[in-house]
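Section 4.2 – Deliverable D4.2 (structural model, holo form)

The reporting period included a commitment to supply a predicted holo structure for the target in complex with magnesium ion. Inputs used:
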Amino acid sequence: RSKGEGPGRSTIFDASMHDRVRERIELEGALRTALAENRLTVVYQPIVRLDSGRPTGAEALVRWTHPERGPIPPMTFIPVAEDAGLIDALGTWVRNEALSQLARWRADGTVDGDFYLSINASPRQLEDPRLPVIVAGELRRYGVPASAVAVEMTESVMADGGGIAARVLYELRQLGLRLLVDDFGTGFSALGYLRRFPVTGVKIDRSFVSGLGESAEDEEIVRAVVAMSRALGLSIVAEGVETRVQRDALAAVGVTQAQGWLWGPGVAPEDFALHWAADRHAPGPAPLAAGNP
Ligand code: C2E
Ligand code: MG
Ligand code: MG
Ligand code: MG
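Output (structure tokens):
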């Protein structure tokens, strides 16, 4: 068929909509099965201290390989899980996987006692008033202190003033978990929430990091975030660091923690232990002389 004579625009639109709906339903079914059959995985990306290059923590990132279509990015399947009512089950699965892994690493000395695991939460998960009690139970079950766990959430959770979420965040913080604002700076929201919510730190979005060394504006933004975070007593992690230029620019303005491909992507737990174990000391700053206070 030639252009103009074929199906009208609306028919084409309907057909592609139909495809998308079908694809969504297929993905949803496959995801449901993957969850039920325990076929998701979690990878761990190191969060390093900029002064020593040693890991101070790791971010848990969920992975899914579709049986026919191969790896599907979280940006694609997390929204499917949210729409399908699967996000609580997915979140619970990721927490249990990550917390049991953290318990093993703490027990076998792969990580130090002050190492923390950072776990992403969708806004929907933080709307569940039972979440704090559930998390408290999980921490007990795995014998992991709350201080070794961070919850990452986006600004949108707090932008709405967050009725239930506000209480959930307060209770998670009461338990002793760290609360980090993910993708900080991309939410277009007034910063007042940093005072109203018990946030303990921010993660500077990659979009501000990528221009460092080239863009004076990005550098000023990061400088301002550092000043604000210091004044409010918040921790800072820079996300998506890919080059040494970016790393040096971050260190120069006082950012202390970072993650990104410069140090490595998320990896399977056995690879994390192999490359990032606490006893594999890279040449770092000289230890304090014996007898120092
Ligand atoms: P996020 O929490 O902001 O995670 C950072 C994303 O940046 C990850 O993508 C990570 O693989 C990627 N990344 C890390 N370093 C670099 C870098 O140097 N350069 C670039 N270009 N990218 C880098 P990923 O794993 O595809 O996850 C995407 C998003 O999906 C996450 O963004 C998070 O919002 C969500 N997500 C991942 N795992 C979970 C989960 O278990 N639960 C929930 N609710 N959301 C999750
Ligand atoms: Mg995150
Ligand atoms: Mg992030
Ligand atoms: Mg991000």
